[in-house]
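User: Hello, can you help with two protein structures?

Assistant: Certainly.
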Amino acid sequence: MSEETDLLESNVMAVMKMNNWVKLILIAGITVSVTAVSIAEEWGTVMYARPNTLVREKRSMNSRIKGHLGKKQAVKADYLKDGWYAVFSLMEKDRNESKALGYVYKTRLYADTPKSIAATPDRENKRENGSKVSNQNLNIDVKNISFNLNKDGNESILIEFNRFYTPAISSIEGKEPRIVLDIENVSSFKEEWSVIKVEGEFIKQIRSSMDYKARKARIVLDLEPSKDYIFKPLFGVRENIYSLQISEYEKKQETQ
């Protein structure tokens, strides 16, 4: 992977509103799991990804990898050509191929509900070149969770993994706004992360829980309810550190 891909940064903005309560804005990319399929526009097809689905820069297996889609992650698929779909955020309104997140080979996507997607173990444990991958290689070790107050006034949660991984992101708006990060196939997670007190203006505290039977971890950011927010995921490839940056949303941004 080249230095140009050392940092994966999302670039699609989705605005979510609920009455007059707090507003959360997700600057999201291929790492975001969107559950409200009904928000998709009429163009394109809502499809769901197989586990470990790669998004490439061009319609070729030799093309640069831009990122990946999580298991059952929903996207808009369109412009099918040479066996490849251009994929878009569900929030994308314009049918413009230049706004695509990248390209995904057609067999990696399914036009069906997520619950009906049940890949066999053999299929899930194969790379695109056909070689098998052991279950151990798919394990996620959460090495560290920390809070960072940035010089520009923004706040971030940093999660260090043993390999490239991007959690599924969702948000809960209202009087008690929260950002939820879900991590699957977790093999290592510390109980000391159950409650992390922070002194942030935006993030009140960080709560974590682990379902050992399902091997799933959940990290919840409790936010100050008096503000509107933008949150932006980044990934440092060399360090295997996932960062979610939180900043305050200003109304003047809507006119820009």
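That covers the first. Now for the second protein you mentioned:
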Amino acid sequence: MPKFVMIFAAIVVFAQMFMVGQHQAKNSPLDIFHRLRPLWRSLAPVLLLFPLVTFGVIVLLRPPPQVCLGLAILAASPGAPITTRRAMAAQADMSYVSTLQLTLALLAMVFSPITLVVFDLALDLGSPSITPGTVAGQVGVVTFLPAALGYLLSRLAPDFCRRYETIFSRAANALFVSLLVVVLLALIFVAELRVLLLIGWSGGLAVVLMAVLAIAFGHALGGTRADRRSGLAIATVARNLGLALYIADLSPASTAAIPTIMSYALAGFLLAFPYANWIKRQSVAATE
């Protein structure tokens, strides 16, 4: 990925997490378990079913080793920083989604190392060794730092934030749309990026199957509220791309997993669009 795209993506992620922090400031931190109730239903698709689906897909399709490693790293990388923006398109409950996103980012510090160890023991993938501290550093800078800044600003200067809330939101939206345009143009004009997405038929089938099942499981376990079902579906399919790439770049042997990670990110993003449109149609039909 061109360096300017990565820098721009970092700016977009910072803006999205800053808005998440501002949103969280409207609620008491003690309400977290109430918003995620029942907790098992909110966490199981992301932390349990996605890794199990990943393991099943690897065993069933037997993709190349580098693809298997990429899938395992994705399974170990929950809590995507731009989950809220994608969930908004699916008319999700944003309070629920932002709380779930921050909870998953916190749990990733322990979940990611354990998941990679389990996959390595079961499938001998040669997964890179990471510690909770390693993950904490990456997640802290990318996720919690901008969220904390947004939270503190809303608490210390509530009048200022209310006055400029619309401007902040529009700026974050504009940055997100601009990132999509930049990535699309990069894919069109940078041949190396298109080659990077070529992971073979078994790898391609694996990432699509995982994305479809992630959306399905998240939707099925989202409860009776449509805005919670769509939010959990998006949170399940959206893996933490930054964390996954960070893990893959830790050793020369694991960099071969990067094409699979990028291919899944693209597949998950594209599949989320028809799902969001379907949710919107369901919502319109329910109000008629």
